[in-house]
Structures are given as C-alpha cells and as structure tokens.
Amino acid sequence: MNTATSAPAPPNRISPTKRRIHFGRWGVHAVLLSYSMLALGPTLLIIMNSLKSRRAIFDDAFSLPTADTFDLVGYDTVLNGSSFDVYFRNSFIVTVASVLLVVFFSAMAAFALAEYDFKGNTLLALYLAIGIMIPIRLGTVSILKLMVSLSLINTLWALILVYTAMGLPLGVFLMTQFMRQVPRELKSAARVDGANEYRVFGLVLPLVRPGMAAVAVFTMLPVWNDLWFPLILAPAENTRTVTLGASAFLGQFERNWNALLAALTLAMVPIILLYVIFSRQFLRGLTEGAIK
Amino acid sequence: MSELRLSGISKVYPNGLRAVSDVDMDIADGELLVLVGPSGCGKSTLLRMIAGLEDITEGVIEIDGRVVNAESPRERDIAMVFQNYALYPHMTVRKNIGYSLRLGRVPKNEATQRIEDTAAMLELSDLLDRKPPALSGGQRQRVAMGRAIVRSPAAFLMDEPLSNLDARLRVQMRAEIIRLQRNLGTTTVYVTHDQVEAMTMGSRVAVLRDGLLQQVDSPQVLYDHPDNLFVAAFIGSPSMNLYQGHIESTSTAARVVFGAHSFPLPDQWTQRDGSGGDDGQEVIVGIRPEWLVEQTRDNTDLPSLRVRVELVESLGSELVAHTTIDAVSVESDTPELAEGHVADSGGGAACLARLSPRSRVAVGETIELAIDHPSVHLFDAETERSLRPGRDR
Fold first, then answer.
1. Which residue in A113, A245, A265, B182 is deepest, having the highest Cβ count within 10 Å?
2. By the CB < 8 Å criterion, does A185 face chain B?
3. pLDDT at B172
4. pLDDT of chain B along its 393 residues, tens only?
C-alpha cells in the first residue's frame, strides 16, 4: 500500500482524492467485469454444452455438465466421423500465410509511405485507407469470376490471396503510424553506416514489432472466423476450413448440436493460442519501449 | 584522413525555404572545424548534406578532390554521430559498433578485433553485451562515438553530440572528443549551437546565420576581430554590450559618441590619413563585459562609463553586474543576447560588466566603469559590418 507517509493526516479519515481513486478503481473493474461476462458468456455456453449429452443440452442449456449429463459424443463425431484434421490444417495454413503476407507487405508499404517523399504519397495513402471502409465482400462476384479464370477455385491460394487483400488496408494504415514513430536519425545512422534501403527496412522492422503484432491480431481473427469466402471459393472437401466444416453439421447431421458445439470448441483452441503468442509480442513491445 | 571542400553549397526545400545559402568552406585534413549558430540557422542541414542524407540544391562537395554530390552516404565513407545518439535499440553494444563492419563485409576476425580495440579506447569493454536502454547517457554517447571510430572513416560529422548530456558530463565528454580527434587525426565537422563548446573545441569555427556563412576563423580571431555585429554578439559569454552611436572626427582627432558618453578613438580614425570614419557616421559601439573594470586611482586615464547598478550576480570567480547606462542599446537577433540582459528600466540601456570578485559594487549605486581595452568594436549601423581601421571597406 502506498499511503502518504510524509503528511500527517488525521486518522480515521480517508482523503477525498483517495476515496475517488478507490471508487474509480472499483468502477473500472465493474465495467470491465460486466463486459468480460458479456463477451465470455456465449463462449462458456458453447464449451459447457459441448460436454453434455443431446438431451441435457435441450433440458437445461445453462447448467454445468454433471456426472449424469457428461457426454463426449460430439467430440467423437468430430474427431472420428469426419475429416476435421484436414479442416484444421487448411484453416491453419490459410490464416498463418495470410497473416504473414499482410504483415510483411503492409510493413513494406508503410515504410515507403512514411519514409519517402514522393509525388502522390498522400493520395496513395488515402486510396489504401478507402479499403478499410469498403468491405471486400461487395466484390465477391468479381472475385469469384477472377478465381475461376485463374483456375484457383477450390484451392487454399484463393483464400490466402483474398484474405491478404482484405487485411492490407488496415495493416498499411496501422503500420504507417508505427513507422512514423521510428526516429529519423536512426534511419540516417543506418544509411551513414552503409546500409542500403532494404537494410534500413530490416533494421526498422524489429522496432515496429508492436505494430506488426497488432496487425497480426487484427488480421488473424476475421480470417480464422470467416465463413463467406471458404463457402464460395473453396467448398471442396479437401480445402474446407474449420468454420465451413462446422457449419456442415447444421445440415449434414440434422443439426447435430453435440458435434457443432464440439467443433466450435476445438476451433477456438488454435486461435486462442495464436492470440496469446502475438499479444505477448504486442505487450513486450509496448513495455520494452523499443523505440527510443 | 581527408580533405573536405564545399563550394557554393545551397539548400532550397521544395516549399521555397532556403536553409543554406552559398556556403564556401575548406576543411583541411585532420582539422576539427566547428559549425556554430543559433537553432534553425541551417547548420544541421549543411552537415546532412555533407553526409549525403540530404540532396544538394546547388554547389559541389568534394572529398579529397572527388566530387561526391551524387554519391550515397555509404559511398562517401563518412561517419556521423547524432544528437540523440541514434543507437539501434535492439542490438547489443557490440553489434551497434560492429554494424557498419558487418555491412562492409569485413572478415569476422578483423571485425571482432576492431570492435574490441574501439571499445577499449572508449572504456566500453565491460558493456559490450548490454543493450542501449541499459546504458547511461554518457555511455550511450561513447557507443555512438565508437560506432563512428570503428570504421576509420574519411571524416567524422558530429551533430550536437553533447547537448543531451548534463553539464558536468558534457565538459568531460568534450575533452574526451578533443583527445580522440587529436589522436586519430580524422577530419571532423562538429555542429553545435553552444558558443562555449565551439570556442573550446574548434581549431577553426564557422559561424552560420540564416544559412549564410558569417565568418570562419580561429576562436581567438572571432573573439577579437568579429567581422560583423552578429558574430560579435554571438561569440563571448555574457555577450557584448551594443549601443547606437556616431563618429565625430576632425582632421586631428576622432571620437565616438553614444548616449551621454564619448571617448577618443585612436589616430587611425581621424580624417587625416583617409582610412578613418566619416564625420557623423552612424555606428554601433560594442563593448565586451570583460573589458569593464571599476574605476580606481590607477586607471583614471581610461575612458569611462557612468552606470547604475541594478543587480549583482556573484559567481565566485567573478562578479557579473547588470547595470543601466544612458544610451540606446541595439537589439540583435541572437537569442543568447536577449536572455543575458536585464530588461531596460529607468530609461537606460542594459550594460553587463564582468568585474573582479573583490569589487564592492552595491545595487542602486551609480558608479564609473573604466574600459580597460585599447579600442572598442565599431560596426556600421546599416550594414552591421565591422569597421576596422586600416581594413578595406
């Protein structure tokens, strides 16, 4: 406790400032806790019910699994009755490849936008920012046509390319802000030390790691969760992603709730792992004060 | 080890801002030249142009007779030390120092040896595996120096390398940089806004103002014979007292008159030999605070000023008296000039005097100060050029 030791305050009285701090702290916690409940509630519901028998799900969806109601039939269906290992692999490849491409290309574009003074710089930045506002799904028909003529339908490449395009606008926008924070003198020093522009870029990259982690997190979640493009561009059995695979339980097994909930629970695990990895980087970058 | 030559260097930014105008300068092999001027005078821009970080609008930069205008920084073989050190924060001291060697494909054994030698020279050997955030300001400064030294470059460029250090460390590092530069004998251009640093470090000092070179000479010459009003006001601390005045000269005698004061000028100023000032010429009179002494029985023959003491600062080794004098002072755009003076009060102009610590001047007194110097500085009121007897005008 960091009580004020220097000033002899009368006992039994909490100073107004201190009371306000206490209230403020509790207030903040109350808000955060209620928001967490709101966000985590559905997730917990899914995990809870994925461990129950079909009857128990319908009897009382809000109760915890007990010895009577505990049932792993959903997981059995998912792991043995379908090719979820393939779906997981597909989702993983698509997400990781898209994230890497988005992070790399947006870092490069942002470096150029932040570092070089060329004609049309602002215009180009604006053009890229428009991509943040206009959803890529509006162009689904033309994307589908394009993919057909490129013979990329039912390949993972189709998804990777579309997701890269989808993630770039926000990525470039975020990375440009981070790139601008790198001191000019640092880049000058590298150039004087004999670095060419690629080297300077390479030197700057570790300094914008928090930015890259932020871009990675923002790119990763919608890609992993997307149902739209896998359904349209790659619905084949061997290119299905987890989300598309899970949605199949809605029709294929006459609304197999056990399997659906189990699949969704399993689908959460990798994304949470990836998030933890990236957010560690994110926080480390912030606390390290890398740029200074 | 090389010679730098700048001829007609100008920098004009796309928005029309003229940062540097027509600078000519020769920097001899092994010389330490200091570029000094108030902030925003273009000295850093000039340095960045020499380094190749900034395009040259007009003029030619030569290193050892080779025109380098079109060369990239790495082709010029020049090392630079920056104000905020610009250390690579994610690399250890060893990698920071060795970065240029790695890029230059210096063989690993040799690189290691050179890094160790440099570190030893700068007393950094124990810190080689630390990262910059774990170093103190002085240590970071030394790493930045090491990064420059390890390359044995053609020249060092230093951009206010000491301004982020506290006063004591600055004095220490100043001496260290001078010593290193002498030992290595590397041509160095050193930029600073601090005239004390400029005076103590440079074998020659170049004074820059609004992108224009004012004067390039040894510190002593700058102090004794400033070419113009700006250099006179900028060099010296506290800076020179400046007043509006005029010359009264006849065929036999010349006097300078300012406010209620006047004193005779040496023979050269009389009209007799033709080189002196014209009668009635408007001038600016410059009197250095250190020329002023208390009037005593021994120096009654010296010209004297009647001043009113407003404030006395005792610095131990000396005593700075802020006084007012019956005259009209001259505003100079030197920032350091403004901060040294008490604002004009009671209808007089400010006059600073550096007196002996044993002086017994008291606030509120009116005293006589003698000018213990052969001649005051005179500047043309219009052109602000120095008026020097016997000099071509």
1. A245
2. yes
3. 87
4. 689 999 999 999 888 888 999 999 999 999 999 999 888 888 999 999 999 998 899 999 999 989 999 988 888 889 999 988 889 988 999 999 999 999 888 899 999 999 999 998 888 889 999 998 888 888 898 899 999 999 889 899 999 888 888 888 888 888 888 998 998 899 999 999 888 889 988 889 999 998 899 999 999 999 999 998 999 988 888 888 988 888 887 777 788 888 888 888 876 666 555 545 567 788 889 999 999 888 888 888 888 888 999 999 988 888 999 998 888 888 665 544 444 444 444 557 888 999 888 888 888 889 888 888 887 888 888 888 888 654 443
Cβ contact A291–B89 (<8 Å)? yes
Look up the pTM and report it. Answer: 0.76
Distance, in Å, from the CA atom of B140 to the CA atom of B133, rounded to the nearest integer, reads 9
The nearest alpha carbon in chain A to B158 belongs to A189
* Residue from B47, B87, B100 whose CB has the most chain A CBs within 10 Å, to mutate: B100
Q: 3-state DSSP call for residue B63?
A: strand
Chain A residues touching B83 at Cβ < 8 A:
185
Which residue from A185, A190, A289 is facing B84, i.e. has the nearest CB? A185
Of residues A183, A195, A289, nearest to B86 (C-beta): A183
Contact A194 B100 (CB under 8 A): yes
Kindly determine whether residue A203 and residue B86, on different chains, have CB atoms separated by under 8 Å. Answer: no
DSSP string, B339-351: HHSPPP-TT-EEE
The CB density around residue B347, as the number of other CB atoms within 10 Å, is 7
Q: Does B99 touch chain A (CB under 8 A)?
A: yes
Q: Whole-angstrom Cα distance, residue B254 to residue B247?
A: 7
Distance from CA of A191 to the nearest CA of B (A): 6
Nearest Cα residue to B88 out of A179, A188, A178: A188
Cβ-based burial of A117 (10 A; exposed 0-12, middle 13-18, buried ≥19): exposed
B185 Ramachandran zone, left/alpha/beta (phi>0; psi -120 to 50): left
Place of tokens 């579309």: A162
Q: Residue A52 gets which letter from DSSP?
A: B
Rounded (5°) CA angle A189-A191-A195? 120
For residue A207, give the chain B residue with the closest CA: B90
Say whether A190 and B88 touch across the interface (CB within 8 A). yes
| Tokens 């004095």, located at residue | B171
Cβ–Cβ gap A189/B103 under 8 Å? no
pLDDT digits (tens, 9 = 90+) for A125-169: 888 888 888 888 898 999 999 999 999 888 999 999 999 999 999
**How many interface pairs between A and B have CB atoms less than 8 angstroms apart?**
64
Residues of A in contact with B79 (CB under 8 A): 192-193
Residue A181 touches partner B, C-beta closer than 8 Å: no
Cβ neighbours of residue B330 closer than 8 Å, sequence gap 6 or more:
B229, B242, B243, B244, B284
d(CA A288, nearest CA chain B) in Å: 9
Q: Is A174 helix (H, G, I), strand (E, B) or coil?
A: helix
| Paired residues of B173 in beta bridges | none
CB A291 within 8 A of CB B89: yes
In this structure, what DSSP letter does residue B89 have?
Answer: T
Q: Which long-range contacts (CB under 8 A, 24 or more apart) does B219-226 make?
A: B223/B199, B225/B386, B225/B388, B226/B377, B226/B386
Evaluate whether ipTM surpasses 0.85: no
Residue of A118, A185, A193 to mutate, interface with B, max B Cβ within 10 Å: A193
Q: What is the mean pLDDT of residues A1-24?
A: 54
